Amino acid sequence: MPTLAEAAPPLAPPEPARPPRRRGRFTPYWLLLPGILWLIVFFALPLVYQASTSVQTGSLEQGYKVTWHFATYWHALAEYWPQFVRSVLYAAAATVLCLLLGYPLAYLIAFRAGRWRNLIMILVIAPFFTSFLIRTLAWKTILADNGPVVHALNTLHVLDVTGWLGWTAGDRVLATPLAVVCGLTYNFLPFMILPLYSSLERIDVRLHEAAGDLYARPWTTFRRVTFPLSMPGVVSGTLLTFIPAAGDYVNAELLGSTDTRMIGNVIQTQFLRVLDYPTAAALSFILMAAILAVVTIYIRRAGTEDLV
Amino acid sequence: MKTTTDGSGDVRLSGIGKTYGSFTAVHPLDLTVPQGSFFALLGASGCGKTTTLRMIAGLEEPTSGTVHLGDLDVTGLPPYKRPVNTVFQSYALFPHLDIFENVAFGLRRRGIKSVKKQVEEMLELVQLGEQARKKPHQLSGGQQQRVAVARALINHPKVLLLDEPLGALDLKLRRQMQLELKRIQTEVGITFVHVTHDQEEAMTMADTVAVMNAGRVEQLGSPTELYENPRTTFVANFLGTSNLIEAEVDSRSGGDIVLRAGDGKLLLPEARCSAPAPAGGKLLVGIRPEKIALTHADDAGSVPEGRNRLTGTVADAGFIGVSTQYVIDSPVAGALAVYAQNVERDTRLVPGAEVVLHWNPAHTFALDAAQDIDAGTEEEAAV
């Protein structure tokens, strides 16, 4: 830097200051390197490979070749759009349920739990100590046709209402949309609670006091102060729930029926049973693009960049 | 203290107290803040002053006693139903709302639709008209403080409560804001109850100061009254500096009490003695450092008759511009502080010099000797 050298007084030449600067300049890149390598090997390369698969044609016997056959995308979309729509609806329903169940709990942990706070947090995380599959299978037992849950819902005539809405069929809960949405909600609930909690926990309780002091009733304080300030948690919680839920296939597989197949099930079948790799790859890309579009619109609308 | 007009802005605390488990934060106390006055609750941290304020605001439920605003008993009312507003210690501005909406918050909650004119006028009053559309974090500490005041004042509360509102500001800005708050208070005429640990702040701003210590009000009065006639060692030491000398009551002559401290005699006007003074009883004699004059021992003859006098040696002399702060070692009274204006300084008054300390007996006050002589000093506060 010549200008700096000229401006510096003769007693303090810039040379001694340079070695530490040079050493520090590359530090950020060294720190990034492991993560970047990991992403290249396990994310970028498979993605490129998958993209190329999606535009290949051929058969398992004669091998596949890249023929830039984009028609696969249109065919896949034309055939499986109901599963796409269903995935988005189920994921959205599960996300809304997670928010309705998770917000009060996160609020309780953040503001009211006192010395129980850590215990409740552990209970929220505890399900992770068991396998995802086992937990989902357990719901099969819970919602079993002759189990107490179904019996109770039947007695209370709740199943009449849900059946009329098309969420359940007859006297069954299992193998219906309701069962799949319940499974999704249960499995992704912690991903909603944790970001909500960390967002709520950062809110200064004096803001509640200030709102009360300025004539806001408790409910108004929540609506005007607490909820707006927890928006970062609401946004990240809904994203962490919606995105994996939209691509999930385990819940639909174990708790659903052929009528509740989600796009994840279709992709799984195409890859592992039908062995139609190009269609499966194309479906994966369409799902990715759809989620990206939904999320982008959502974040724009939520306007969280305004929040501190 | 201003005269009460209709009394609807009086704050009356009757036997109000607060305990947390076995800890008593505020001992049941009675206090009346007259309408329109600028009232300060002064004390070190943990003395119960903030708890008292929060009980007035409704943010803390008193364990005993009642809070009245004028004739209205508000003890059982939640904060949002009380006609008081608070300026919080760290301002507690809503970070997601801009300055305009922060100030308009209280009006909107009370269902007032057209807030624009009022908010703009209020922002003008605190000189923040230009900042209306900024977010709180974009403002400096002093500006945020003014927003907090505007947000509370716009509701025309009967009482404005200020919880260490200037604590986060640097010294210069604090002095400026003290004058600003005082100006606003005079302009709007609302009762201000101000909590602070800064004795200078309390004395500059308030008409009446209540000095609190360990959950009790030690003394209540005008700043002059508290400074000139402290009734406890805590008040004497916490407000400014006091030299406290142990002395024994010797006799009475006219309106004065004659005291014996070591081999010296000190005179004390009877009216300025807050403790019973039977002959032979002990008292703590107090004298403020700036009231004492120093004369070099060589000139001892020039000290006029009738003044209280002690002898000592200069232990330390600190020059701080407007004055010089001396520490004098006296065989009778230990270390004494003396502040001398830097007018016609005697250059012989250097450490080691023998001096005579003398003052007008009228400036002497006396306290009950049965208390901790160091209560309220900085050394004690640091423990």
TrEMBL record, chain A:
Record field: transmembrane: 29-49, 88-111, 118-138, 174-197, 225-246, 280-299
Localization: Cell membrane
Region feature Disordered, mapped onto this chain: 1-20
Keywords on record: Cell membrane, Membrane, Transmembrane, Transmembrane helix, Transport
Domain ABC transmembrane type-1: 84-298
Membrane-related topology note: Multi-pass membrane protein
Biological process according to GO: transmembrane transport
Domain of life: Bacteria
Gene3D superfamilies, per the entry: MetI-like
This protein's GO CC annotations: plasma membrane
Family as reported in the entry's similarity comment: Belongs to the binding-protein-dependent transport system permease family. CysTW subfamily.
The protein's name in its UniProt record: ABC transporter permease
Organism from which the protein derives: Streptomyces griseoluteus
